[in-house]
Each structure stands twice: as structure tokens, then as C-alpha cells.
Amino acid sequence: MAASHVRAQRPADGRTTAGAPPRPPARGPGRLSRAGVVTLLVLLAVDGALVVADMGHRFARLQGRFTAFADGRWDSQYDGSAAEIAGYVQVALTVLVLLVLVRRLRDPVLAAWAVLLSVVVVDDAAALHERLGFALAGAVDLPAVAGLRAGDLGELLVWAGYGGVLGLVVLVFHLRSDGPARATSLQLAGALVLLMAAGAGVDMLHQLLEGSVPDRVGYALGLLESTGELVGMSLLLVVAVHRWATTRPHTGERVRRGGPQQVVTAAPRP
């Protein structure tokens, strides 16, 4: 009768158990994968080109120079601009990659992030928070606070409602996730904080100072806002791509949840 021995598959933390063939260790959260590096460089190049195009549009409008950028679509402050569309594409791709990861890893926190980012894109594209904010301001007669118009305050309250509900869902699943999923969740949160700081914080500052500062300062604030939003959305996609690249089957990382699987193999006859 042939003898048999038990060989344990490689567990999720990257260690190799006895008898299992060695595999490359999974990258830690501090090391960006090659796919992540390439994605980062490409997106930063695109973001940089859009910023240059924005400045070119300003020169074309004020000085008649660089007329190739005279079209208003290069002005990142307007709806439907090239920068805005590029941002939507980046977030949509992020959601797509996260959904692929959800199917592969069964991590609920990644599904929660996909929903949150989808809401962000749909809300911004349809200007829902602006419409609901002004409707709220009119319905409850919100006051102007600290230089903010009633509609601006309404927008903040609407976003606080969005963020409160969706953020709580993400937090619950984050706390119930394992180490790799938490690391990805924290990285996504960092990118989203940058996006919101630019899209909400700098935008509100711009509105507060509008008319009381030189035109150059106002333009610089607008450019800072759009640049911060672009970089934040780019980082969201980089995080998702990095996670995808480090969980492909050949890496051996978290192929199946629940610990190492036992596989019975037959040993050769003596």
C-alpha cells in the first residue's frame, strides 16, 4: 500500500510550510508593486498635462497666447472640463478594480468602498449635493455662517449626511477585516481625505475669499483645488491597482480565506 503524507498549502501571510514549494512573498503595504508604480507615473503625467493645459487656457484667455488651449474645456473650474472627466474615469476604474477584488477576495470592506466611491462620482456628476443643499437651505431657512452662503452650508450638511452613513458602513467592515484588507482600506481613506480636502476645503476657502483677493490668488486657489482632486483620485486608482497586482493567483496571497488548506498527496513507493 502506498504511503501518504500531508502537505499544507502556503498560508495567507506568505510563509511556506513544510513540503510546499517556495513562492515569492507577498509585498507589504509599504512597497508599491510594479503595476502600482506604472499606474502612479502614468496618472501623474496625465494630471500634470491637465494642469499645464489649465494654465495654458488662462494665458489664452488673458493674453491671447497658447491659443490651442483657448477652448473652455481646458478650464478645470467648469463642469464638463477635461480635468473633471479624467477624474470621473479614474474613480470609475477604481470602482471596477475594487469589484474585481471583491469577487476574488470576498472582502466586504472593499465592496463598501466601491459603493462609497460610486456615490461620490454620481453625486458630483449630477450635482446632487448642490441641488439638495440649496433645497435644504430654502426648506429650513439656513443662515449664512462665517461668510458661507446658506446654500453652501446646506451642501456641507448634505455631504455630512452622506459621509456619516457611508463612512459608518465602511468603518464597521474595516474593523471586521483582516490585516491586508485594513491596510488597503486605510490607503483608500488617505486618498479620499486628500480628495475631500481639495474638493470641499479649498473650494470653500476659494468662495470665502472670492472678490476680496487679487485675481491671481483666486486662480491659484482654483488650480490648487483641481490639482488636489486629480491627485486624490489618481491615488485611489493606484491603491486599487496595487492591491489587485499583489493578490493575483501566482503570488499566493489570500487565495482562499480561512487559513491554510490541507491537501493529501501520495508519496512515491520505496
UniProtKB/TrEMBL annotation:
Keyword Magnesium in record: no
Keyword annotations of the record: Membrane, Transmembrane, Transmembrane helix
Region of interest (Disordered), ranges: 1-31, 250-270
Segments passing through the bilayer: 32-53, 85-102, 109-128, 156-174, 186-205, 217-241
Protein's recorded name: Uncharacterized protein
Source organism per UniProt: Pseudokineococcus marinus
Lineage: Bacteria, Bacillati, Actinomycetota, Actinomycetes, Kineosporiales
